[in-house]
């Protein structure tokens, strides 16, 4: 038979050999080098899915960078990340956070003052907001410094792309993590505008934050992934499922373009593992939220392409169980996006 471009392709390139039979989530991971190494110091940001993987990484013994903690009674994952920034649904929001921390960007709508508190529009769900303008300024500066400290300390950064839909300020384009008026603040059509980021915009924002972070931490390893969790609600005229498919398609395409532009950036297929054709049901009864077992399947696939952690997570089974229980609790916790489903 004549040779052609498919003749030398490995089995994973063929549906009949890699999907119809011999399906394995691990085979979807095609990184050329270990994703995590024994001495990795991991920082992460992104959608609420990004928070649920952290306890599994810690249970495996990897060092997760933490430079800031949130107060008790946290409902929105602020304590789940390396600093208390909570869920970051879009690359633009993360890029702007770095620019704020470095003094490049000063949002004009940077606080919402009420009779009892001064609320941070970029962390509207903090359980104990500032009680005065002076306290707000101190807390915000401290938070931004902790973000920079985390970037400087880590050597691996995992970003989970969550949404293309967002709400921004008409004054300067500042991206809010939640639509004003859902968790805090008041919605104003003159000041708040809906956007649905395009693939090219997402790519530009990803490359922007990569360059910013590597200027702070040279040699930083970047891992991109797409959250498999569906949208709570859409502000478009589409059915929420159609909007979700569009959203994930744009994010996946953008991640691919970003990796092509920066070949040393790793794409990890969490979305594909969770939504793939395996027999497992990876979603809870709401058909949106991933089960804890599904999160573990995704993390196990990452660990299969990583070096064992230097501290070794297997030895402390009680700690592993406690951290995996924390992941279960995080999966059940609210995220800002859920506030879109309120009347």
Summarize the structure.
Residues 334-343 have a biased composition (Acidic residues). With 343 residues, the chain is α/β, with parallel strands linked by helices.
Task: Characterize the structure shown.
36% of the residues lie in helices and 11% in strands. With 343 residues, it is α/β, with parallel strands linked by helices. The chain has one domain. The protein has a five-stranded parallel β-sheet, with helices on both faces. A three-stranded antiparallel β-sheet has the order 7-6-8. It is globular, with a radius of gyration of 20 Å. The mean pLDDT is 90.
Structural descriptors:
alpha/beta, 10 strands, 5-stranded parallel β-sheet, GSCFA domain-containing protein, GSCFA, 3-stranded antiparallel β-sheet, 343 residues, 9 helices
What's the helix and strand layout?
Elements: H1 15-18, E1 41-46, H2 48-59, E2 63-64, H3 91-101, E3 112-113, E4 118-119, H4 133-153, E5 156-161, E6 165-169, E7 175-176, E8 192-196, H5 199-216, E9 221-226, H6 240-261, E10 266-267, H7 270-275, H8 292-304, H9 317-332
Parallel strand pairs: 1-2, 1-5, 5-9, 9-10
Antiparallel strand pairs: 3-4, 6-7, 6-8
Helix pairs in contact: 2-8, 2-9, 3-4, 3-5, 5-6
Portion in helices: 25-40%
Number of strands: 10
**How would you describe the shape?**
globular
* H and E order: HEHEHEEHEEEEHEHEHHH
In order across it, which strands form the biggest sheet? Answer: 2-1-5-9-10
Tell me the fraction of residues in β-strands, as a range. Answer: 5-15%
Number of helices: 9
Summed up, the domain count is 1
Low-confidence stretches: none
Output the radius of gyration: 20 Å
**Alpha-beta classification:** alpha/beta
Average pLDDT rating: 90
Region (Disordered): 305-343
Pfam families: GSCFA (PF08885)
InterPro entries: GSCFA
Organism: Mycolicibacter kumamotonensis
């Amino acid at each position: 038979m004549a040779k052609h471009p498919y003749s030398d392709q490995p089995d994973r390139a063929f549906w009949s050999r890699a999907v119809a039979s011999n399906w394995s989530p691990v085979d979807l991971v095609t990184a050329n080098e270990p994703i995590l190494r024994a001495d990795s110091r991991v920082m992460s940001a992104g959608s609420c899915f990004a928070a649920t993987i952290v306890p599994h990484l810690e249970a495996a013994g990897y060092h997760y960078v933490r430079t800031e903690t949130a107060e008790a009674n946290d409902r929105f994952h602020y304590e789940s990340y390396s600093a208390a920034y909570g869920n970051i649904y879009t690359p633009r929001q993360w890029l702007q956070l770095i620019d704020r921390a470095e003094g490049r960007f000063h949002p004009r709508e940077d606080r919402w003052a009420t009779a009892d508190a001064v609320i941070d529009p970029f962390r509207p769900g903090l359980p104990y907001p500032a009680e005065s303008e002076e306290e707000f300024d101190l807390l915000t500066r401290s938070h931004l410094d902790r973000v920079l400290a985390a970037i400087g300390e880590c050597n691996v950064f995992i970003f989970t792309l969550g949404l293309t839909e967002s709400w921004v300020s008409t004054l300067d384009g500042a991206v809010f993590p939640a639509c004003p008026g859902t968790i805090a603040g008041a919605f104003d059509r003159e000041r708040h505008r809906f956007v649905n980021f395009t693939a090219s915009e997402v790519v530009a924002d990803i490359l922007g934050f990569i360059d910013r972070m590597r200027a702070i931490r040279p040699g930083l390893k970047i891992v991109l992934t797409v959250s498999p969790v569906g949208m709570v609600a859409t502000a478009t005229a589409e059915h929420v499922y159609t909007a979700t498919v569009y959203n994930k398609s744009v994010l996946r395409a953008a991640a691919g373009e970003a990796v092509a532009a920066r070949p040393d950036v790793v794409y990890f297929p969490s979305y594909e593992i969770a939504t793939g054709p395996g027999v497992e049901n990876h979603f809870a009864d709401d058909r949106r939220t991933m089960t804890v077992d599904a999160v573990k399947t995704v993390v196990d696939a990452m660990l299969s392409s990583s070096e064992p952690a230097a501290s070794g997570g297997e030895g402390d089974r009680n700690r592993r169980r406690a951290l995996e229980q924390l992941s279960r609790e995080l999966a059940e916790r609210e995220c800002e996006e859920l506030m879109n489903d309120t009347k």
